[in-house]
Fold:
Amino acid sequence: MEEQPNNKRRNLIFLAVLVVVLFGLVAIFITRSRGTASSGNTNNTATGQVTLQWWGTFLDSTTVQPLLAEYTAANPNVKIQYVNKWPGGSRDGAQTQYYASLDAIFSENNSLALPDIFMVDNTMVGYYENETTPAPASVISASELSANFYPVVATNLVKAGQVRGLPLWVDTLAIVYNRNLLLQAGRQTLPTEWTEFKNLSQQLTTVVGTNRVLGFAAGTTKNASFGTDLLQLLFLQDGINLTDAAGRPAFASNATNAVDTLSFFKGFAGSGGSWSAANADNDALAFMKGNLAMIVAPSWLVNDFLDINRAQSLNLNIGVSKIPQISGSAEINWGNYWANVVASKRPNSVEAWKFLKWVSEPAQLRKLRIEDSKKGRSFSFIYPRADMRTELENTSQYLEPYLRSMSTATSWYMGNGVKLRASLAELIESAGTASNVQSAQTKALEALQDKL
Structure:
């Protein structure tokens, strides 16, 4: 029977609707397929993009941003968001606040709030060991790091054959001095040996004592900076091992020698010394006022001194000399710096390590230093790579002593460096007996074992 016109019209409408529906389904399928195919290594999104959160210290965002843009241009699927988390203020106060903010986030156990990369100072790498992941050997191996970076970097940042972090700069300690006060004492240069140096510090205090000028700030932690670092350095220079073969604290194994070294150190603030815990000003302020001839300081503090000297027209004639050594012994210096580590509870740790490897290569470090130099400071940071040392030679009279000390700088894997420094500060302020040295070692072991 011939189909009726109404039925034909109905069938045509049905076919048209069916075609539209099929086209819609095909379009949805294609869209979803493309989204799935491009997802790759992401932050659980369908865009294929990896966003890395980077918490830094000291480096301004404007200093870092050109490098981040360059990395993203070469790796379009990776975006790095950098924030300078250093709170400012006094060194100890700012450090306490910074680590407290990190610990608060880790204690929340919320992986979404964690940064992918964050900076810690070289004494705190062990404290965050359980919350961080080492670099894949395919990205950077321990042997590669040891071959290119300063020895102190491998000492602090390699454990069990794995790289735990990468620095963008390194630093050490030196003696910063007032040249004019030295000239008043008939000296143009500083002694290179500790006994002669201590005699000079006392002489400077005697020569200009009526003007309330002291020789050298040390022997206490109440108003003298970097005292715990200096004590550890003196231990090492005096042949006292800080750790045993297993990396455990061992400076009390020869308590008699440790007490002798401690007594030498405390003598700077003792009767007839060159400093006093009762001074109203801390060492940095006393130095800038012209009331202190010599102070131990890392290079970043020299930059602060030079900036203040220039801005306030203080007309201080500032010099820098290497840390004194023990006569007849091998040279040993102390390393202090910050390193980048990678959070273990974030989904893109491999991408994070790839970026850190890239930004720690010579070409990028040069660019970072150029950007940092735009801040107008007297000099910029020391490259962490020993294979770049010659590039900085003769670039600054103030930086040169630090640069010449870096190859012999050392430290150790402390665990909780903040806790360790507190125990050593307690030792310094104690009576300095063998019993107190042993107690400090016990607390140092606790600091080594302290984990989040």
Observations:
- The chain has two domains: 50-171+336-405, 173-334+414-449.
- The mean pLDDT is 90.
- The longest strand covers residues 50-56.
- The domain at 173-334+414-449 is CATH 3.40.190.10 (D-Maltodextrin-Binding Protein; domain 2).
